[in-house]
Amino acid sequence: MAQQEPLIAPSILSADFARLGEEVDNVLNSGADIVHFDVMDNHYVPNLTIGPPICKALRDHGVTAPIDVHLMVKPVDRIIPDFAEAGASYITFHPEASEHVHRSLQLIQHHGCKSGLVFNPATPLDYLRHVIDEIDMVLIMSVNPGFGGQAFIPEALNKLREARKIIDDSGRDIRLEVDGGVKAENIGEVAAAGADTFVAGSAIFGKDDYAKVISEMRSEIASAK
Ligand SMILES: O=C(CO)[C@@H](O)[C@H](O)COP(=O)(O)O
Ligand SMILES: [Fe+2]
């Protein structure tokens, strides 16, 4: 299926955690579409962040937008039911972090969430072809996972084009998300390479006016060729 309508997904990793509910409200009221929720375990990646209780707290706070849980944890299966119960909409994970990728994807869907696979800069897309029927989202990392505020790795553009072709050939309704170093200055070329779901952390939360940067991003996407 062709590129879907663009979604802006602020990564709350760069939000002020002391005011998380307010930050998420502000960014959604400023035109964001979904909340990107980075889960790091200090094992699969060298950083430690947030888990299911924070996801539930956002739902209890009144957040109704989709929550896009990006698992950077190993193992993955143990935490999937907890995130589903906590209100996750999408749950994506890295194939290197699961012993049984097909089983983990089915587990996510069994718990009523949309499932996705995440590809690190050096991970080939080969897995994708074998589990495409179990997938709702493909996430291409344009930085190495673990931290916000890193520089975009240009090779990700080639991988986005390759993923776009695999998705289009499948005829399935699959989102193509990009994560890492995305900002108003490069989002146009990222969209032109085939992405339709754009994670941005520091580029949004690092600015005072969230609405202004999100609207700049939308116009860059709209004029992308
Ligand atoms: O998953 C990750 C990092 O591992 C990302 O979601 C980052 O949080 C994106 O931050 P920026 O590169 O946009 O600042
Ligand atoms: Fe992420």
Automatic annotation (TrEMBL):
<comment type="pathway">
    <text>Carbohydrate degradation.</text>
</comment>
<protein>
    <recommendedName>
        <fullName>Ribulose-phosphate 3-epimerase</fullName>
        <ecNumber>5.1.3.1</ecNumber>
    </recommendedName>
</protein>
<feature type="binding site">
    <location>
        <position position="11"/>
    </location>
    <ligand>
        <name>substrate</name>
    </ligand>
</feature>
<dbReference type="InterPro" id="IPR000056">
    <property type="entry name" value="Ribul_P_3_epim-like"/>
</dbReference>
<dbReference type="InterPro" id="IPR026019">
    <property type="entry name" value="Ribul_P_3_epim"/>
</dbReference>
<dbReference type="GO" id="GO:0019323">
    <property type="term" value="P:pentose catabolic process"/>
</dbReference>
<dbReference type="Pfam" id="PF00834">
    <property type="entry name" value="Ribul_P_3_epim"/>
</dbReference>
<feature type="active site" description="Proton acceptor">
    <location>
        <position position="38"/>
    </location>
</feature>
<keyword id="KW-0464">Manganese</keyword>
<feature type="binding site">
    <location>
        <position position="36"/>
    </location>
    <ligand>
        <name>a divalent metal cation</name>
    </ligand>
</feature>
<dbReference type="InterPro" id="IPR013785">
    <property type="entry name" value="Aldolase_TIM"/>
</dbReference>
<keyword id="KW-0413">Isomerase</keyword>
<dbReference type="GO" id="GO:0004750">
    <property type="term" value="F:D-ribulose-phosphate 3-epimerase activity"/>
</dbReference>
<dbReference type="GO" id="GO:0005737">
    <property type="term" value="C:cytoplasm"/>
</dbReference>
<dbReference type="InterPro" id="IPR011060">
    <property type="entry name" value="RibuloseP-bd_barrel"/>
</dbReference>
<dbReference type="GO" id="GO:0006098">
    <property type="term" value="P:pentose-phosphate shunt"/>
</dbReference>
<feature type="active site" description="Proton donor">
    <location>
        <position position="179"/>
    </location>
</feature>
<feature type="binding site">
    <location>
        <begin position="179"/>
        <end position="181"/>
    </location>
    <ligand>
        <name>substrate</name>
    </ligand>
</feature>
<keyword id="KW-0862">Zinc</keyword>
<feature type="binding site">
    <location>
        <begin position="201"/>
        <end position="202"/>
    </location>
    <ligand>
        <name>substrate</name>
    </ligand>
</feature>
<keyword id="KW-0170">Cobalt</keyword>
<comment type="function">
    <text>Catalyzes the reversible epimerization of D-ribulose 5-phosphate to D-xylulose 5-phosphate.</text>
</comment>
<feature type="binding site">
    <location>
        <position position="70"/>
    </location>
    <ligand>
        <name>substrate</name>
    </ligand>
</feature>
<feature type="binding site">
    <location>
        <begin position="146"/>
        <end position="149"/>
    </location>
    <ligand>
        <name>substrate</name>
    </ligand>
</feature>
<keyword id="KW-0479">Metal-binding</keyword>
<comment type="similarity">
    <text>Belongs to the ribulose-phosphate 3-epimerase family.</text>
</comment>
<dbReference type="GO" id="GO:0046872">
    <property type="term" value="F:metal ion binding"/>
</dbReference>
<feature type="binding site">
    <location>
        <position position="38"/>
    </location>
    <ligand>
        <name>a divalent metal cation</name>
    </ligand>
</feature>
<keyword id="KW-0119">Carbohydrate metabolism</keyword>
<feature type="binding site">
    <location>
        <position position="181"/>
    </location>
    <ligand>
        <name>substrate</name>
    </ligand>
</feature>
<feature type="binding site">
    <location>
        <position position="70"/>
    </location>
    <ligand>
        <name>a divalent metal cation</name>
    </ligand>
</feature>
<feature type="binding site">
    <location>
        <position position="179"/>
    </location>
    <ligand>
        <name>a divalent metal cation</name>
    </ligand>
</feature>
